[in-house]
Fold this sequence. Notes:
mainly alpha; two-stranded antiparallel ribbon; two-stranded antiparallel sheet
Amino acid sequence: MxxxxxxxxxxxxxxxxxxxxxxxxxxxxxWANAGESWVFGGALIGVEDMNSYLGKLRIGxxxxxxxxxxxxxxxxxxxxxxFLPYILPGWIVGRIVDPFAPALTPALIVTFHLxxxxxxxxLVIATxxxxxxxxxxxxxxxxxxxxxxxxxxxxxxxLPLAGVDWLGSPPPxxxxxxxxxxxxxxxxxxxxxxxxxxxxxxxxxxxxxRIQGGEQRPSLAVIAxxxxxxxxxxxxxxxxxxIYAILGAWGLAAWVIERRFPRELFGRCVVAAGxxxxxxxxxxxxxxxxxxxxxxxQNILTSPHPLHYxxxxxxxxLPAVIGARRLGRSAPLLIGWVLIVPLLVYLPINVQxxxxxGVIVALAILxxxxxxxxxxxxxxxxxxxxx
Length: 387
């Protein structure tokens, strides 16, 4: 298992702090410039989504733990535990601030951004820990972490040349947070927390199994991975299906690379994924009930033209190919993850583009490994990819 030195931990903390500061400055500016003519609602993008997040916080503030769709008057049974990462902090705020007082709304906005700061910190830690499983040099781990949390594609080049609606949609890196990192850090604490838990589970899955009686046994780390993925399901329910796809791609890639069935990996995946199956079954049943199903069906998030994805990921994909060759047999997880996403994002479902969740992390680690082969170009390459 790779060790993360104390100096690296300080670097991790500084990366997280800088990201939080940079992404918080626009919100602070907006709030400072609010006045009698207008009130800052806590969001600079996705205002309608922000109101739904505040609504979930408000459910908790008023003493509830069951999620109901507050945009409909149609009677329906609440869903216990869904969106708990918002409802539980809201409950805490409701014990401090009168849940029916005007002061509740600004208190919930502050809570939302505190959640964002905490979730971004966890995401940076988890990303660095995963990078450390594959990259020996601290500078490569830093490169991978920064690219995974901040990098974009060629959208900055497409916009002035072709316009916002080129090929029917804007560039993915400016409107698909699941496929990149900056938008998550900027505005989506529940996605940041889900991604941190997803990655944390993968890191735990890579812990060597314990030996008992001459046989390999799943370690407690595998059970902890399953617990991490329960958190993912509570943040974004259908991300559990993404985890299952990643595990399947990991196993298949390991099978192809090692030319034998990865029995030990298969056993660990069965244990960890099995822990999440009751939650997955519960969520599947609840979200197929009439009111929840009608609500979910309105969530139309189709993938853009494939050329958009090509241009968005090309700056990372080129060094990632070199990195995949360099890491070779040690990186079936990363290789399988990257290769399965092009299939996932065009499945015939209504949330296609959200199935790219977290792939930027795998791609960034591979890219950092590839850029390492050209040390003189590595820093320049990172800057180009970032900006």
